[in-house]
Amino acid sequence: MRQDVRLLGDVLGEVIRDSAGPELLADVEHLRRAVIEARRGARDASAGDEIAALVASWSLVRADQVARAFTVYFHLANLAEEHQRIRVLRARDTGQQPVRESLDAAVAELSHDVGREHLVQLLASLRVHLVLTAHPTEARRRAVVSALRRVSELLDVLDDPRTGAMDRAETRRALHENIDLLWRTSQLRIKAMDPIDEVRTVMAAFDETLFRVVPVVYRELDRALAGQASRQTPSPVPAFLRFGSWVGADRDGNPFVTAQVTREAAAIQAEHVLRALETATTRIGRALTLHEGSAPPATALRRALAAASAAHPELLAEITERSPQEPYRTYLLYVAQRLAATRARHADLAYRGPAEYLADLRVVQESLAAAGAAKQAFGELQHLVWQAETFGFHLAGLEVRQHSDVHARALAELRAAGPPGIGDGDGPDGSGLDGSLDGGPRSAETEEVLATFRAVAWVQDRFGADAGRRYVVSFTRSADDIAAVYELARYAMAGGPVPELDVVPLFESAADLTNAPDVLTGMLAIPEVTRRLAANGRELEAMLGYSDSAKELGPASATLRLFDAQAKLAEWAAGHAVRLTLFHGRGGALGRGGGPAGRAVLAQAPGSVNGSFKVTEQGEVIFARYGQQVIAKRHLEQVSSAVLLASSPRIADRNAAAAATYRDVADRIDEAARSAFRSLVEADGFADWFARISPLGEIGQLRIGSRPAKRGLAPAGSGSVATMDLTDLRAIPWVFAWSQTRMNLPGWFGLGSGLAAISGADCADCADGADGADGADGADGADGAEVLRRAYRDWPLFSVLLDNAEMSLAKTDRLIGARYLALGGRDDLTKRVLAEYDLTRRLVLAVTGHDRLLEDKHVLSRAVALRDPYVDALSYLQLRALAALRGPIPEEERDRLERLLLLTVNGVAAGLQNTG
């Protein structure tokens, strides 16, 4: 990896020198050496003052160029790290023993723990559901991502020992060309993204990675179960992966996601998956050149060929002429033509749905098996079956999301006008001609709500119910919020058939999490819910919001209360004979429920997984996890193996016992941590102070997503965030802005006060009620500290909480963070934040037994240490721009300062490898 970083850095240096002159390269090197030297020294304020003076001495044009150089460097360094991770994953897979956190390892462990029979039962109900969202956290432009992908491919060539000297020389030339292009490409978006841009961006992950990787994951499990018989016998592995999407469907606070956008999103997804299936079917069909004499077609295949010839004689004659006496090749190429017709909507040849397509594949597969060609039946053809079962003809189920308050306003308006079913249905999307009911014209908001339901009906009619049956209700407070959705659907369809809906309550606030079981009980009395439960085997879904709960309660309290909510919901499901799937709304950043996915699954409340796990994959996480096939396979294996293990009695019993043992400890940590967090964010003037010390108000100008930073506002960047109520501020800009200050406060603040309440640590600067006077259960501080160490060792949830906080603390820089905090002119708030940081760091190290942060994670620790000086360089440049923008400046300088600020925001995000 060091060799790759050096190579890429050297090429970038040459590009900068050749394109902008040796003086710029000298300035970049001057700053680079200064920040590295500052890290090696005592790290006092004087070294920082010298660096600040250096960046202040440059013109804004020069500062802009230097910021761009460090940003591009981080993109290249991230690429080198990604390549190293792929090397490591390949090196670990020796075949001699199962790789840690792999499906092979999970099968071995479960076979030992519960036996093969129980494992097979568990597999039959296994479902891992990953939902892609357009949450605006991917700061890189698509043009930048594309350039980096080309550089990545060139590194692959250089990494291959078979590459000859001439090819190596040509690859280095191409490397210079593409890094030069990357340097000359604007790091900032000129045009804001719209929702369809976001849909097409996500499609890149499907086209290049997901469609190809999914069958590889299934094959890994097949090999673990069947051993040498894999690819030679029918596979026992069900297609347990499912994908959903909020991209083009999540309209909560995003006025740009309309009914028409949702229709377009569904059509784009269908186009991509049908084209992918058509290409794969054609490829496999052309390869199946088995002669009918060596592999006689079974009766079912002969009948299928005869039926195809009768229905489309010219088409089948054309295919047969090119594939004489090759029935398998002939029929699969005919199937591929039917897929093309489905995509083009040629009704006479098109499939009515994926079930017909799968039936055709199985006819071929069974005939091959009967003819003794098992390797052909259960090899590539089985991969195609798995792909069709996983993605269908819709790729990912679109999940509409809307806020409960929007529904309430629309319903109040409609009820005042009259009962559902009285519109004439002649207007656009089936509405009245004048967009009204008998009570008068409807508001634009209400009309869009109704149009959304008609769009869902259109999607289901065109692509099937699985293409868009889920409807998520943000801030669900009662069962009435769920009933409102069904009532609105009746109004929208005006007496016509209502789309099939699974309405999903989203619980986000502390009060809503507590009230969740009562809401689900109320849902059972809703007739539409009752009918759906009867039709789907009593399956129900509820979503838990990690981002907003963490913004309200702080990371420690949110983690503990979410665990309690899961446990209570699992208990409720068991008591009501409901198979409940908990949908985890996790963000990528640690302050929004992010962190290692496999460990998070294994730490879930007992009974809450039960073979089924659903989670969001947001923004930057999509390309981090699904940008490379090797990494995507690893991630899907980690999550799937963790779901299998978490569903076993041993893991469930372990988590239940630990939660019961440390119940009192958790309650006291929760109370003290929440008190500390709320006392900070509720302090007078906190919102204005936060807006002054961070680039919160400017983040929207990055144009990294279509969604505004605040619910109910115009697009982010159109006004000052300093005037907003933090309650309405979305969690992403909250976390994003804090990460830019290098404090990473949402990932750790309050935890120190919570630990002090148990350990009895000195907490003079903590919030009231968190002074840590006594240890757990009234024990003294020494006993309390030992209780925390035992909890860290025995309780997976507590271990994950502290390890994630430790990671967040390791990415925090107190010295530079203090410079940001000082911009707000509030010494009291600065003192409170730094005191909690010092306390949290000290107690996390004490409980984990580490002498330094990330002591047990050598690779990650080294990576953070190597990156820190380069991030420092961008932070000093950002501080220059931020300090100037917070004071009186000539108007002609504002645009350049804002550009410099945004460039550094982009660069710091790349350096820290997270945004929001």
Descriptive report:
The protein is an alpha/beta fold and 916 residues long. The chain is 63% helix and 6% strand. The chain has 37 helices and 10 strands. It has an 8-stranded parallel barrel with strand order 1-2-3-6-7-8-9-10, surrounded by 9 helices. A two-stranded antiparallel ribbon has the order 4-5. It is globular.
The strand order across the widest sheet is 1-2-3-6-7-8-9-10
Largest beta-sheet details: 8 strands, parallel, barrel
- Classify the helix fraction into a percent range: 55-70%
Shape assignment: globular
Let me know the average pLDDT: 89
Instruction: List unreliable stretches of 5+ residues.
Output: 422-438, 713-723, 764-779
In whole angstroms, the N-to-C terminal distance is: 27 Å
Total number of strands: 10
Record the SSE blueprint:
Layout: H1 2-20, H2 22-40, H3 45-56, H4 60-92, H5 103-113, H6 116-124, E1 127-133, H7 142-159, H8 165-184, H9 195-226, E2 241-245, H10 259-287, H11 299-311, H12 313-322, H13 327-344, H14 354-370, H15 374-377, H16 380-391, E3 397-403, H17 404-417, E4 436-437, E5 440-441, H18 444-463, E6 470-474, H19 479-493, E7 502-507, H20 510-523, H21 527-536, E8 539-545, H22 546-553, H23 555-575, E9 579-585, H24 597-602, E10 612-618, H25 620-626, H26 629-646, H27 649-661, H28 663-681, H29 686-693, H30 731-740, H31 751-759, H32 781-794, H33 796-810, H34 814-822, H35 827-848, H36 858-885, H37 891-912
Parallel strand pairs: 1-2, 1-10, 2-3, 3-6, 6-7, 7-8, 8-9, 9-10
Antiparallel strand pairs: 4-5
